[in-house]
Design goal:
The protein has 177 residues and is mainly β. It has one domain. The protein contains no helices and twelve strands. Strands 3-4-5-6 form a four-stranded antiparallel sheet, with no helix packed on it. A four-stranded antiparallel sheet has the order 7-8-9-10, with no helix packed on it. The N and C termini lie far apart (58 Å). The relative contact order is 0.14. Bound molecules: 2-acetamido-2-deoxy-beta-D-glucopyranose (NAG).
Length: 177
């Protein structure tokens, strides 16, 4: 479809492809687009990388596919995850693990136990394997919840990404919380 808009022509391509389970993250980058499924209960998240639509036909082909794996930490449970676009056309995968007292020893026994951990892994252009997960944040505080909000490219100090998360904590003071 070609549309005139203020003397310029915008070409809209339409194409229909089967994405499999698209109940996750679907995003375009300048290197095509990706479908990253929601992580399953084992913390495995399948991804499929497709080409950009062909400019004549709108046709899209699958480039490659693989999986993101949350580190195998038996006493932790996956709570939340977030995907975001990278400047080079790749994708980031951020996720939160929470210590689970039903799987490990009670938190009160070890004051240095990291109750929450946040990791990031990157999927670069034309690679089959995401990078090894890096620990971004951890806290010994037994918060109610941590929620990931967004990650955006920034040039504030140098080229990089700023991610926003919310920490939900209950503070009790004179029996008021
Ligand atoms: C924060 O956590 C408490 C306790 O789990 C919950 O009741 C409340 O709705 C949460 N607040 C927000 C803004 O998520």
């Amino acid at each position: 479809m070609k549309v005139n808009y203020n003397d310029s022509i915008i070409i809209l391509l339409f194409s229909e492809i089967y994405l499999g389970n698209a109940d996750g993250y679907v995003a375009l980058s300048n290197e095509g687009f990706i479908n990253i499924e929601k992580p399953d209960e084992k913390g495995i998240s399948a991804w499929h990388w497709y080409s950009s639509p062909n400019i004549e036909t709108g046709e899209v082909v699958e480039h490659n596919s693989g999986e993101f794996h949350v580190p195998n930490l038996p006493s932790y449970t996956l709570v939340d995850s977030l995907n975001f676009n990278l400047l080079d056309g790749g994708f980031g995968f951020l996720y939160i693990l929470k210590y689970d007292e039903t799987k490990g020893s009670p938190v009160t026994k070890d004051p240095n136990l990291q109750y929450w951990r946040i990791y990031v892994s990157f999927l670069k252009v034309k690679t089959d394997l995401p990078t090894k997960p890096s620990l971004l944040y951890e806290t010994t505080q037994k918060l109610n919840n941590i929620t990931l909000k967004s990650c955006t490219l920034t040039y504030y100090h140098a080229e990089g990404y700023i991610c926003v998360m919310t920490l939900n904590n209950t503070i009790t003071n004179n029996n008021n919380s």
